[in-house]
Specification:
Elements (H helix, E strand, L loop, with lengths): L1 E8 L1 H6 L2 H9 L1 H10 L3 E6 L7 E6 L2 E6 L8 E9 L3 H8 L3 H4 L7 E6 L7
Antiparallel strand pairs: 1-5, 1-6, 2-5, 3-4
Length: about 120
């Protein structure tokens, strides 16, 4: 089964961190990403672009309206995603727990939400 991992952060908390603290935190991420890759179960992993470059598309009067920025107002924002293929929920949880947002970054509100995918295109 495939699982979508959504990595969240709290923009205000992240912005309140010193540049040195951000550097120390992000410096730890490549090793954790490599650990996830080494399982052979990670299909996709990506960080999302800056919020000021996001676009929202919604239907309005039979046409698609495009606006700047994320539409939803939330305390936490999605900052990255990954897709893994696991043989069981326990395996998916074990792999997802290797993600930096599941092990680091408590001070900036990092967290991971793991969602089973009921259908998929491709592999």
């Amino acid at each position: 089964m495939k699982y979508l991992g959504l990595a969240y952060y709290t923009p205000e908390a992240f912005a309140a961190m010193t540049p040195d603290a951000v550097e120390a935190l992000t410096r730890q991420c490549p090793a954790l990403d490599a650990k996830m890759q080494a399982t052979g179960k990670m299909l996709v992993s990506a960080s999302l672009g800056d919020l000021d470059r996001w676009k929202t598309l919604r239907p309005r009067g039979g046409k698609t309206q495009v606006s700047d920025g994320p539409y939803t107002e939330a305390k936490e924002m999605v900052g990255g995603l990954f897709i893994i293929e696991a043989d069981s929920e326990d395996e998916a949880l074990r792999i997802a727990s290797m993600h930096p947002a599941a092990t680091l970054g408590e001070e900036c509100g990092w967290t991971v939400e793991l969602v089973p995918l009921d259908f998929y295109l491709g592999r």
